[in-house]
Amino acid sequence: MNLTEYIDSKRDEHLNELYEFLKIPSVSAQSEHKPDIERAAKWVASRLTAAGLENVEIVPTKMHPLVYGESLHAPGKPTILFYGHYDVQPAEPLNLWTSPAFEPTIRGGNLYGRGTADDKGQVHIHIRALDAILKTAGKLPINLKVMIEGEEEVGSVSLWEFVNANKPRLKADALVVSDTGMLAAGVPSITYGLRGLNYYQIEVTGPAQDLHSGIFGGAVPNPITILCELFAKLHDKNMRVAVPGFYDDVAKLSKAERKALNSLPWKAAAFRKTVGAPGLSGEKGASMVEQLWTRPTLELNGIWGGYTGEGSKTVIPSKAYAKFSTRLVPNQNPEKITKNLERHIRKLLPRTVKFKLDLHSSGKAWVAPYTHPYFEVAHNALEKGFGKRAVFIREGGSIPFVTQMYDTFKVPCILLGFGLPDENAHAPDEHISLENYFGGIKAVAQFYQGLGNL
Amino acid sequence: MNLTEYIDSKRDEHLNELYEFLKIPSVSAQSEHKPDIERAAKWVASRLTAAGLENVEIVPTKMHPLVYGESLHAPGKPTILFYGHYDVQPAEPLNLWTSPAFEPTIRGGNLYGRGTADDKGQVHIHIRALDAILKTAGKLPINLKVMIEGEEEVGSVSLWEFVNANKPRLKADALVVSDTGMLAAGVPSITYGLRGLNYYQIEVTGPAQDLHSGIFGGAVPNPITILCELFAKLHDKNMRVAVPGFYDDVAKLSKAERKALNSLPWKAAAFRKTVGAPGLSGEKGASMVEQLWTRPTLELNGIWGGYTGEGSKTVIPSKAYAKFSTRLVPNQNPEKITKNLERHIRKLLPRTVKFKLDLHSSGKAWVAPYTHPYFEVAHNALEKGFGKRAVFIREGGSIPFVTQMYDTFKVPCILLGFGLPDENAHAPDEHISLENYFGGIKAVAQFYQGLGNL
């Protein structure tokens, strides 16, 4: 039985094992899930060991542990560092899930559950690919280092400390990551660019305590109104971010790249359908693909203040809050963006309120050429796994770690993504296409095997 | 023992009975408190009976029951309809209470607990005053009808249906209400004007489901941002409400009334201290007293959308919500305000989102002259109860029922309030001054007795 046949023969085994992983609610942002985080790390360690890796260890950190393992028995062959994460986004709002977030369920050719696409399903693709190579060839044809962290959804702080402390141990010829998506169903993709991300929380305080809106209304600063007025001033009418200096360092897209990106088989109609809004809205003067992959944004991710329960309460609250983030592109400097943003907010807010701005996480964009021979191996492997030609794309999401690794080790970063844009990563009813999950296992196995033939 | 001495001798009894009332979490806005609402209605009925009222009944309604009782044994003497409410505002946010909201606690001469000021404490003042008259004089010197409802904090819909169906039964020479405040500590007050209130909830929907802000950010409408931009447009830079027609019908304040209101011993410094904000903010061109009592407002009372939990979530939500309200003054028409507001919101919101605007409750303002002889009786009674001259004031809060009763029965409405502006009605740590509570019982007893001497 060859590699592909073997993988096809084990579909139930792949899925049953993945269910175990998905059932662990390893939400890194919520402290009540700390025991689940520990459980998920142990689970990953045991599966890496079963797939033939050695020296597998659960590395404690200041926050959530990361799992490291390696196999270094292919002298003269490439050394690959594979990175993924076992933590997931919060599942809230729970009532919008068709089936519970942590009870994996198949419907219509898709597997539903938090983490199916981002990133447990994709990490598991690699685990099963390694297992298949081990079972069919008896050994790995390359040298492999695997690092699976538990803080990706909250900023990867510990990961970076670990990398800095273990640079020689982590040295590799290329970094491989599967935490991105495919351009569309049937279009296997290699991602060569990601946006950066600064994530903030702001607290605006007006009155020292909540006040009755009848007795006090009309003479006191309302922090909700003031927060709204602030955010209304952060975009201009062309949907450009109205923070001074925000676009100063943005790299200009080359004519060739602009043409290549706009020529991809990207389906605007499918995008509109996935979004499902009455209309779309983006920065004037850029195509949708450019808006999503190559232009920076400022988005509100959450807002709250005052009475949010059932019925009415006539209150002017003491405080209002928002979570918001900027997606950054080459060559924006995340620290400079934060500095400009804070200065601008300070200038815009009236003196009737106080504010506190916290930076939750920060990371710059990454874009790199895809000229190394490994990319050709990846391109061919995707074609073998999916029976379709692969394309080179950029993405709007952020993996700060990729930027940092690229800057530190100066090696190719190969992003093989198996998610789809409509798979609700970070939202209710997250899912992965079973076709892409199984195709992914075959493609990754072919990729590792192909690298061994170089 | 005269009336005042009797009341002074029963301080512990007054308080112990009030504690029973306050411990019932009769929150009308939250359906899980329905059994507490029923319990509070029964408690009121039993206390009215104990205070000598007859035909006491708990009247079922479509929502929360109201309690009615009467004593009609003083032929030729005035007939008074006393109105109050036994329901309270939600206690949230619970973590900001120094002592639990439904465990009455005395600290520094004040009694803390939800409902102490608004309105259980004030209703109880009347119950104890009646009880004191019964115990000292053996009978009531006037004819009295008492109606205590359970929907004041959610719009008093059932109350009004009951009134309409029982007009002959409720006929009286005057309406008496204790649900307002005193101008300041040591300044007993009679309120002759209230603002009206329209309370709304808006839901803005952009994408059909929550989206990943990396994959989708930059090309889709963010409902939180759009909600913020909407509310930023509803005030101009002079803090005037920027809804077309909003001020069209506002009654101009007479020169005499403006002078009287601005000459009251209203303490701006105390107000600033109670608010505790870095600065105040109100409509340009009006004094603070005018802003609070005589000018209409539009206030955000709550806002929510997206991720509001711990840490970060990079989501563009499908929906964002806000609760907001307008305080109305004479002669604004609540329906016209709603119509103008809805039309304006429809105009302001971009076509990229849908919206739903719900009117939770609606009521116009009330202002009336205080020329009837009953007002003199009230003025004297307050002086007897508190040992201080009373003043005539307006208030920023709303009691839609007063407006409706005034319009329907064309009788004087006498608003004797015993709360203070810094007593956190509708907020955590709501309290009532014990001095005002006990003074209130004495003043109300003197008032009812004084009316009997007319």
How would you describe the overall organization of this protein?
- The structure is a homodimer of 454-residue chains.
- With 454 residues, chain A is of the alpha+beta class.
- Chain A contains 14 helices and 18 strands.
- In chain A, strands 1, 2, 3, 6, 7, 8, 15, 16 and 17 form a 9-stranded mixed beta sheet that branches. A 4-stranded antiparallel beta sheet of chain A has the order 11-13-9-14. In chain A, strands 4-5-18 form a 3-stranded antiparallel beta sheet.
- The radius of gyration of chain A is 23 Å and the shape is globular.
Parts with pLDDT < 50 across at least 5 consecutive residues of chain A:
none
Number of strands of chain A: 18
**Share of helix among residues of chain A?**
25-40%
Portion in beta strands of chain A: 15-25%
Biggest interface and its residues per chain? A-B, 104 and 102 residues
The multimeric state of the shown protein is homodimer
Mean pLDDT of chain A: 96
Q: Provide the domain count of chain A.
A: 2
CATH topology of the largest domain in chain A: Aminopeptidase
Span of the ends, CA to CA of chain A? 23 Å
Structural class of chain A: alpha+beta
Q: What is the tally of helical segments of chain A? A: 14
Shape of chain A: globular
Rg of chain A, rounded, reads 23 Å
Q: What is the annotated CATH architecture of the largest domain in chain A?
A: 3-Layer(aba) Sandwich
- The CATH homology group name of the largest domain in chain A: Zn peptidases
Q: What characterizes the major β-sheet of chain A?
A: 9 strands, mixed
CATH class label of the largest domain in chain A = Alpha Beta
